[in-house]
Amino acid sequence: MNRVIILLLVMGLFGCSKSLDIQLEPEVHMFLSNDTKQKIPITQKDEVYVVLNEWLHENKDGWYATSGRYPGGVYVKSGNYGIQVTESKVVIYSTVTNDPKAIYIQEINKGELSAILNFAK
Prior knowledge:
- By secondary structure, the protein is an alpha+beta fold.
- It has helices at residues 2-15, 47-58, 114-119; strands at residues 27-32, 35-43, 64-65, 74-78, 81-85, 89-94, 101-107.
- It has a seven-stranded antiparallel β-sheet with strand order 2-1-4-5-6-7-3.
- A hairpin with a 3-residue loop joins strand 5 (81-85) and strand 6.
- The protein is globular.
- The chain starts with a helix and ends with a helix.
């Protein structure tokens, strides 16, 4: 019986999603996976900024804890966060230290953020 309760508690802790309210700073920097040295400034006037900011606003719920590194896509640095957009997911990184750490992830539909990914092509 105790094992069942512990299992249910563990499943509850890891199966629950979190709500995040990440707002982009007025100017952020974008990095492309194929050229990480190139720092591209984007502002509220740029389509990429608008698309990402709206998506973050509309998708505050459904974030899951994660760790590790994820290859590819586009990386946007804004304040204490890094936001990586790939074909199938958005990963939030903590950039409080010099080594960014993945902290949250959300799956996306293919093509959902293509305006951002097309910028990298």
